[in-house]
User: What shape does this take?
Amino acid sequence: MVNQFLINYYFCIVVKIRNIELGEFPLLLAPMEDVSDPPFRALCKKHGADLMYTEFISSEGLIRDAAKSVKKLDIYEYERPVGIQIFGYDIESMKKSAQIIEKTNPDIIDINFGCPVKKVTCKGAGAGMLQDIPKMIKMTEEIVKITNLPVTVKTRLGWDDKTKYVVSTAEKLQDVGVEAISIHGRTRQQLYKGEADWTLIGEVKNNPRMHIPIFGNGDIDTPEKALEYRNRYGVDGIMIGRASIGYPWIFNEVKHFMNTGEYLPAPSVADRVAIAKEHLEMSVAWKGQGLGIAEMKRHYSNYFKGIAHMKEYRMKLVTSFDLQEIYDTLDFIRLNEDQFTLL
Assistant: This one.
């Protein structure tokens, strides 16, 4: 049993982004390309996420009215509060895209200064902006000026081990009007390799100059780690990304463990089938049958990860483009649950 004092240590102040109340220790769904779409966000909301962000949207694509970028603006009342995240390298394009986004009435505009993918950073966008901190601050300031919505930022420790300027950068972002910052505990150079270093995230949070919410991100994949990092680094909340793919239950599991020191029962095979079917239905409804089926394939492997004797059926799910065959396979798994063992 975890010490009750440690469990409740921080549970006394409601975290806010402007007037948006997020609870005493909010759990955020990280923006993930081709993952954090409306169907997935709906499931994470249902299972305990307090604030969610869309997939990141290209500012250039948005101002050109590119269909893929515009589609990502879809948000729904049941998922609020929700932020729309944008990325880009041109300040004027970013300002224009912020104005377009404001018309769709999200709760927050988030600026991506953290994406490490080469096709983004080579243009100076995403984490590429960490190579030009003055431009990063100027861009943020201009977006804050042009919108009435709260502006938040997601970033990393720095470009590489020699440029971990996140403590001073966070101060500057706060000074130009950013109302919350999420920090991934790696540099761009690390991509997603190695262990996330939360030491500097803690320094940002415990900097006496800082008064806005600071959310930590990186490697939170168990309730124990969430509790440990909350107590060790003092962050206002935690952003969860990869650990939620195929496992949206993690949000409620973390909350329950923090409140009680006890574990929720792991989702059964039937639970996993039910959520996979719900996800598939929403994906097809939102994207159409072809794309909806195709983009579900990455999720099946995660929904049924760690289950013995599942390989044959998981292969059927990820290779079939026949909607009825997929439903039949899911129904077979559910009806024969006793054949499969959670490892």
